[in-house]
Recover the amino acids of this structure.
């Protein structure tokens, strides 16, 4: 069976889209954290741990929730997750650094420190959906569809997974862009560089 | 004691990012971990830091934390009896 893009979510410019349809928009322009909190409430995601997360995990969690909360079939617990971005978890790194600069080592707060790796966002998605699967987080200068396609196909060929949640989750202060898509052995959009560049 | 409990609730909300809660939403005898407020092990570290930085209490045995951090009431009682600032 051919693998295709079956489902996708975009989060950018104070709006959220599911398969190209707008499902949430702010009135006016809000700072990222207010925007994403508004979306969490409006979309009734109901996962209180959201409030404790760093901005990258919040973006990743909301994008994955749009795709997976309404998934009609039973979720594949072996669904692999492959995420990427440019800035890692720079926002929480800055907060962590500021706390240390101000108060020395005593300023290092566990609630911030635990998020000082971008792949924590993978863990948050895995915990929410009880996924026990392959996952990876890559850093690129810009969205790299060829790599994501090749890596996803290699996981499939190695029989590491039978479906994937893949994408780009970038947050750096007020610049953010979330684009997650699912790859499954089902009818859908062709998994090509051109298609992914169209969708992001 | 009532003032200390209110102060503790405000500190919990701020330190643990429980931003949708107000002090009135947290009962004095509500379990902080498990099914109550749903705090986890990382939150426990934050509570240890609050005790140290704000009340001058250093917990030397992590086993003590289980009883001390049971509820806001147990925390406040412990702080009242042991605070150095």
């Amino acid at each position: 069976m051919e693998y295709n893009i079956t489902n996708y979510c975009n989060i950018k410019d104070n709006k959220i889209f599911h398969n190209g349809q707008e499902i949430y928009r702010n009135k006016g322009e809000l700072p990222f954290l207010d925007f994403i909190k508004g979306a969490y409430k409006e979309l009734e995601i109901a996962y209180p741990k959201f409030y404790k997360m760093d901005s990258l995990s919040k973006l990743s969690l909301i994008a994955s929730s749009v795709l997976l909360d309404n998934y009609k079939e039973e979720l594949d617990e072996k669904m692999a997750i492959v995420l990427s971005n440019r800035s890692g978890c720079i926002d929480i790194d800055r907060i962590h650094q500021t706390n240390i600069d101000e108060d020395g080592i005593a300023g290092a707060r566990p609630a911030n420190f635990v998020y000082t790796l971008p792949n924590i966002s993978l863990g948050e998605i895995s915990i929410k959906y009880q996924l026990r699967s392959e996952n990876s987080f890559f850093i690129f200068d810009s969205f790299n569809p060829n790599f994501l396609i090749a890596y996803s196909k290699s996981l499939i060929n190695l029989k590491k997974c039978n479906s994937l949640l893949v994408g780009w989750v970038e947050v750096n202060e007020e610049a953010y862009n979330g684009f997650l898509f699912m790859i499954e052995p089902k009818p859908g959009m062709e998994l090509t560089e051109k298609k992914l560049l169209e969708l992001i | 004691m009532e003032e200390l409990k209110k102060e503790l609730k405000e500190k919990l909300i701020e330190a643990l990012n429980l931003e949708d809660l107000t002090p009135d939403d947290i009962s004095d005898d509500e379990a902080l971990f498990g099914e109550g407020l749903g705090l986890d092990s990382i939150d426990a570290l934050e509570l240890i830091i609050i005790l140290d930085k704000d009340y001058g209490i250093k917990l030397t045995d992590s086993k003590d934390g289980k009883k001390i951090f049971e509820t806001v009431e147990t925390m406040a009682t412990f702080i009242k009896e042991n605070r150095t600032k």
User: Anything to note?
Assistant: The interface with chain A takes residues 15-20, 38, 42-43, 45-46, 49, 52-53 of chain B (CB under 8 Å).
